[in-house]
Design brief:
This protein is of the alpha+beta class and 926 residues long. It has 26 helices and 31 strands. Strand 24 and strand 25 form a beta hairpin. This is Aminopeptidase.
Length: 926
């Protein structure tokens, strides 16, 4: 990745040493100065598609905290006219005149350093004025361009938007671009009268531009103090749908005019969840308005800019005729996540990116509470915790994972932190804390923390102080325990524990020991170090109390960090099982002795299986398949557990099972004995497929969870050719193809479209593929376009897949940059597509890096589905050689490369250890 910062040629003679390289090389800004307010004025020109650009100036009110002769701030890819820079003192004593004598840069940290004529004195206030200009870029970061096609006039409509998190405000205007440098903003946008201007705050005043006809200046009200990454503005010709919010902020949902009919659900759900958070946090939403806007081009899923939340179209727009229930639930989760940030992240912000998880983990966790409140029938919390744990367990069982709270010294490292550890593991440890603290002290501590740090910055230790105080006040935690000690063990060290449970059946006790759980089985036990403070909840076969998640015991760590084994007593005799970790309240795995596993297997495979809580059934499936993978259990035991799924009728254990069995499928389908695995999967799936009436459209009579279960089961059933799944899917597709107007009339039920499209493309012809491609090009619904992109990769024809990848990465093609990832993942995750996508990546890596630049996150996300299918030493060595050869291109994705290589190593180990014996186990369980 190339780092570059360029500045205009110097015109004025008094800047004698302009743009020399600065000796200041620390990754954090100096602490001598604090911005207090920005007056930001930007003229955006969207009329000429060949020259989309912006010009502006920023006046920064700066307070000096220490004497200094330098003003160090951030600027990247901006042309700064240095002859127009001014600096003057506006408050305090001493000499009033000042100026800038020279400038220097540090391209590694994007620093732009102004050396002053006179020393800036502590206590004084100054105003710095910087003029700047740049092209509206195509990279989806900073201040960038987007467009959509007006179907009526068949013309391209241009708009502008911002994406500043984590460190791209510096690409839009010179600023102190760190989260700890909060200031208020007065934004004024200049644009043609045919457009609308939006920013974080309501419009204050509109007046004509001084010289440009039909242009206006739109000034917005001054913002509350906030970090630069939360500033947002857009110039567009969108429409909006207003929401009614009694006694609350003005709430509007924006989209391009030909998609405004898809805003109804977001406009209804958004205000409800905002009001829930006001009550939950005990703090009213502090701004007078909130806008949410669906952008055609957007790199992230959504962004929580204060008062102007930006989304991909797929995460804000919903069409009942085209979107599935799964699409709707995903949309609700994203809106709830972004609106939770308005408090956790915006009102109180982390001091530095080390604690990014405080933003993302909290928003993920609290979003689950918000969705659960508004749609209790969705059971979103249960599914959310399972997804959080499955996703983070997989990543965090690698040596190359990282702590939730991690040191950050470069912008590329910030990008790497936006992963399952910050979001999903962060969410899981917060839920653990919520459950062991109890509702009263958790809510009390949160409210105290938010009030203490309103409009300020905080670190995780500040949160622990507020929560400890509340827990002791309410009596929820013993006086000698504190939240910091417990939570540091989860946030400051990598990984998670497995609790090994050895029962003494005659004494009625069990000894618990813990060690770090790792997928790499060749790492000796002596190196699986780490100690976690574990709240231990459990129940017995006689009690079956799965509602009490409070800890009955704690696993503690010594002062030197060693694990202290724990014994629990008053347990039943040898005829009854024990289950730890009620409702997966804590992110650990539990491995029992052989007898306890057998007792659990006996209950699961009996009519009494529902006496075990549904989340714990999912936990047993998840844990035992992991233990079989790494050799702590054999596949005989694991398959006896999964056999019970023939009786299971709830989505949560099925999701757990299918996520894990998919990993086996991706390896075994490339081996000669795959038929046995296929037979076993058919045995598990046939009863549930028939129970749910197969592919028949019975959705209207089903509960929400049944709809999702059917969607999941039918999808996998067609992959394994269960019953009539494939011919029925093909029949749906043929009916669609025979429609006179297939873009208006689609007989395929929205919840089955992903399955039907994929099956038809996999079993179909080039004409089928071209038909679906045409539907993609003509569709006006984001979720439908996403479904089609995810299924066009199902073809078995190598040449079609190669053509598809070329279209996916064509900068002038029909697939938008942010969606190319979907296309690649669709190809690489299928059997025939895997070698095609692998070759494409290896041959075109330089082009792909340039295509995504500077979005290193996108490159990182190409790798997981690839590494899941490499299981031979030869393929592993080939990938290693590719990485070594492409080191320069793959800068910024080192973490993803390490994790991919480690996952491949564990696949190779799996083949050596398990391949010979798994087929005996499958044979015995067929």
């Amino acid at each position: 990745m190339k780092w570059f910062l360029w500045v205009a040629l110097v015109i004025s003679l008094d800047l004698s040493s302009a743009n020399s390289i600065s000796s200041y090389n620390h990754y954090r800004l100096p602490a001598a100065l604090r911005p207090q307010k920005y007056y930001l004025r930007i003229l955006t020109e969207l009329k000429n598609p060949d020259d989309l650009r912006f010009t502006g100036n920023v006046q920064i009110v700066i307070k000096a905290l220490q004497n200094t002769r330098n003003i160090t701030l951030h600027s990247k890819n901006l042309t700064i006219d240095e002859s127009q820079i001014t600096l003057r003192q506006i408050g305090g004593g001493g000499k009033k005149d000042n100026c800038v004598s020279s400038t220097s840069v540090n391209p590694a940290h994007d620093y732009y350093i102004l050396h002053t004529c006179e020393e800036l004195l502590a206590g004084n206030v100054y105003i710095l004025c910087l003029p700047f200009s740049a092209d509206l870029n195509r990279q989806l970061v900073g201040y960038y361009r987007s467009s959509y096609k007006d179907a009526v006039t068949n013309t391209t409509r241009w708009l502008s938007a911002t994406q500043f998190e984590p460190a791209a405000a510096r690409k839009a205007f010179p600023c102190f671009d760190e989260p700890g440098f909060k200031a208020s903003f007065v934004v004024t946008l200049g644009y043609h009268t045919q457009f609308t201007g939006l920013s974080n705050m309501p419009v204050k005043e509109i007046k004509p531009h001084e010289t440009l006809p039909n242009y206006i200046w739109c000034e917005f009200e001054e913002s509350v103090p906030m970090s630069t990454y939360l500033l947002a503005y857009s110039v567009n010709d969108f429409s909006f749908k207003p929401s009614t919010l009694p006694n609350g902020a003005l709430f509007r949902t924006w989209a391009r005019p030909n998609a405004i009919d898809q805003c109804d659900y977001a406009a209804e759900f958004g205000p409800k969840v905002l009001q829930y958070y006001e009550q939950f946090f005990g703090i009213k939403f502090p701004l007078p308005k909130i806008d949410q806007i669906a952008l055609p081009d957007f790199s992230a899923g959504a962004m929580e800019n204060w008062g102007l939340v930006t989304y991909r179209e797929t995460t804000l727009l919903y069409s009942p005729n085209h979107s599935s229930l799964s699409d709707q639930q995903n949309l609700a989760n994203v809106i709830a996540h972004e609106l939770a940030h308005q408090w956790f992240g915006n009102l109180v912000t982390m001091k530095w990116w080390t604690d990014l998880w405080l933003n993302e983990g909290f928003a993920t966790y609290v979003a689950g509470l918000g969705v659960q409140e508004i749609h209790p029938d969705w059971q979103s919390q249960d599914k959310g915790i399972l997804t959080a744990l499955i996703t983070s367990f997989r990543l965090d069982s690698l040596v190359s994972s990282h702590p939730i709270s991690r040191p950050i010294q470069m912008v590329a490292e910030i990008e790497e932190s936006f992963d399952a550890i910050s979001y999903q593991k962060g969410s899981a440890v917060l839920r653990m804390m919520h459950l062991f603290m109890g509702e009263e002290s958790f809510r009390l501590g949160l409210k105290e923390y938010l009030k203490l740090y309103t409009y300020k910055n905080a670190e995780q230790d500040n949160l622990w102080e507020s929560l400890t105080s509340a827990a002791h006040q309410v009596g929820a935690l013993a006086g000698h325990y504190n939240i910091k000690t417990i939570m540091d063990s989860w946030t400051l060290q990598t990984g998670y524990p497995v609790l090994n449970v050895t029962r003494d059946y005659s004494a009625g006790t069990a000894r618990l020991t813990q060690e770090r759980y790792l997928r790499d089985s060749q790492i000796p036990r002596s190196e699986r170090v780490g100690c976690w403070w574990v709240p231990v909840s459990y129940t017995t076969q006689a009690e079956k109390d799965f509602n009490d998640t409070a800890p009955k015991a704690w696993m503690e760590c010594s002062q030197t960090g060693e694990s202290v084994p724990t014994t629990i007593d008053l347990l039943p005799g040898p005829e009854e099982w024990v289950i730890l970790n009620i409702q997966l309240s804590t992110p650990y795995k539990a491995n029992y002795d052989a007898r306890n596993w057998q007792l659990l297997i006996d209950t699961l495979n009996s009519d009494q299986f529902q006496s075990i809580h549904v989340i714990n059934r999912a936990q047993l499936v998840e844990d035992v398949l992991y233990f079989a993978w790494t050799g702590e259990q054999d596949y005989g035991t694991a398959l006896q557990v999964t056999n019970y799924l023939q009786r299971e009728r709830d989505i949560i254990p099925w999701k757990s099972a299918l996520d894990n069995l998919k990993l086996l499928n991706r390896i075994l389908r490339q081996t000669p004995n795959f038929g046995l695995f296929k037979g076993y999967m058919k045995k598990l799936l046939t009863p549930i497929y028939e129970h749910l009436n197969g592919t028949n459209d019975t959705f209207s009579s089903m509960q929400q969870n049944e709809v999702l279960l059917k969607t999941l089961v039918v999808n996998v059933a067609c992959q394994y050719h269960v019953s009539d799944c494939v011919p029925q899917a093909q029949s749906y597709f043929r009916r669609w193809r025979s429609e006179p107007d297939p873009d208006e009339n689609n007989p395929v039920p929205p919840n089955l479209r992903s399955t039907v499209y994929c099956t038809a493309i996999r079993e179909g012809t080039e004409e089928d593929w071209d038909f679906l491609w045409t539907r993609f090009r003509r569709s006006n619904v984001g979720s439908e376009r996403q479904t089609i992109l995810s299924t066009l990769g199902c073809s078995k024809e190598v040449w079609i897949l190669q053509r598809y990848l070329e279209r996916a990465f064509d900068p002038k093609g029909d697939i938008r940059r942010q969606d190319s990832l979907l296309s690649f993942q669709a190809v690489v995750s299928r059997e025939q597509g895997f070698p095609v996508a692998k070759s494409y990546l290896m041959e075109h890596v330089d082009f792909m890096v340039e295509y995504y630049y500077p979005q290193t996150r996108s490159m990182a996300r190409l790798l997981p589905p690839l590494c899941e299918q490499i299981y031979t030493a030869n393929d592993l060595n080939e990938f290693r050689a590719f990485v070594n050869k492409s080191q320069q291109s793959l800068k910024g994705v080192e973490q993803a490369i390490q994790q991919s290589l480690e996952a491949m190593v564990t696949n190779v180990q799996w083949m050596d250890r398990n391949y010979p014996q798994i087929f005996d186990s499958l044979q015995r369980n067929l």
